[in-house]
Design goal:
The complex is a heterodimer of chains A (146) and B (458). Chain A is of the alpha+beta class. Helix content of chain A is 25%, strand content 17%. The radius of gyration of chain A is 15 Å and the shape is globular. Chain B is α/β, with parallel strands linked by helices.
Chain lengths: 146, 458
Amino acid sequence: MKWYEIDKPRVVWEYEKIRSKYPSFKLNKYEQKLAWEGEVNVIPAGLQEPPLQIRVICPEGYPVRPPDVFPISPEIPKEMWGHKWHRWEVGKLCFVNPSDWCVGYNIAEVIEKIEMWYFNFLAFKNGLIDKMPDVGWANVEVKGDE
Amino acid sequence: MGLFSCLLIGKELLKLIRQCQKQWGYINGFVRDGVAGAFSADIGGETPALCLASIIVLKNRLVSENYQEKAFYWVLVEKSFINKLNKDFVIDFDTLEPYIPNELAGLISKENHCNLLLINLTNENNITFADIFKHKDKQLIVAGEVQILEEEPSPFERIDGLAPLEEMKEKSVAIVGLGSGGSFTAMELAANGVGTLHLFDKDRLSTENIFRHICDVRDLGRKKVDAVEEVIKEHLLSPKIHKYSENIVSSPDKLREVVQEVDMVICATDNTESRTMANYICVVANKPLILVCSFDSARIGEIIQVSPYKSACYECTRIHLKEQGALIEDNNEERLAPYGSQTKDNSISRGTRTDVLIVAAMAAKIALMALAGDSNHTLGKLPYNYITWGATRITEFPNPYKFDMPFVTLYCNYSIHPKCPICGDLQLELVGIDIEEKYYEIIHKLSSEEVKIAQTKT
């Protein structure tokens, strides 16, 4: 019995939140799990980089366990993993310390974190900063804001 | 030589002996450390007779490597002799000789030590078990004790009237976590007549467990669910037991399914994540939950009674405690830390067996009260949902973890916290939305998408 078959208010709550904040994201089922797919597109100023297409998968243990976020496109090289890149070896993006995850967080907040992750990732990959920050946005101008 | 011997024998087997055509025979079983167990008896048939209660005999710790064919004798004797032996306690073998067949008397007289079950044919209760041994050129008989085993034991005779047994038989409880506390609680529920237990634990029993556990060294390496089931049954308790070895955090689907059909869930795990999961699943399913744990080296016990949407859930209590300054922050970070972080020894769960089991017993009692419900007047009702117990005087923590002296129990009532992400005001954001309608719209769309994807693939 899946969480989304039982916790109907949560499904609706999450759906409404994403609809209002990230309307381009689509809800799918991926291997019997609920998964949101869409793009994050906050890019550091001066860079020509594509948006990052992601799949946010709610595991069986969701929402007590955090969702798994995988980049779909562009492909991120396998060797870019570990704390340096804030990415797990299996390719998942690290957006929160698992022990900091709280059952009250939602997917809209996760997508916001992934926007930040991608921004920081691009800033680091392109040499705009020395390391990906553990918390918060890299101190770099955002494309479109300059 | 075992003076004051005690014999275990099935009621049915005794009946078979009384009904047979023989006057004496052998009994197969064991005799060791003054205890004898009758497994089967030679009553003249092709194979020895046995009975259902023989299974109980077979479970005795002393049976191992001590089982033997013809372990001791049985004989039918007159009532007067059994009465005499029970009265005098020690008598000469010569006194017995006229009462038993010559062939048997001849065999016994050659033995340095043997045991004999003396049965009176007419009186069911006229029976004794004797040690016969040589002492200073004499052969003496000493009376022992007989424990007659019921084929279908009635373990609840002692609590009849003290617990609502008929109601409990219909109750079904899921117990998550079979450590020292959880296994003990499971046993207590079974011993109070709860009819069905669903046991959840992913682990196997290891050496560090057995010091406080209901299982012992004979269960090392076994799945806890299997070992606990067997120990419960070894106590002649017979609830229906369902076992699950899933990790309830990474694979909670089975727990969700089981929660739908039980009357209550008891969570006795020792980590915040699994407690959060049990709480989330129970609140969403609107199912009563009792969380029990010990922390600070088991000096503090905590029991939370969750009645979903009526009183505080586990998350609510954590938020309340944080606001009270009672929930210790982890490394000064502004986040909720698990209670477990108040212990500095995360590697093994420290604490004495006594302290852990007192809290587990309290949790079992609270569970029974809740299961019995308002209509029951035997067990009573506890009008609090948050209980802490101090094994010793503890002053370094604020209330509700401050205990002026050992053995103090504190009671509070926590209400639903509006900021609770599970049962708080989250629902307010959904005001005006027809949840059912919207949910089916979302899921229907999802199914259509799936169909579309499938069609594209083909």
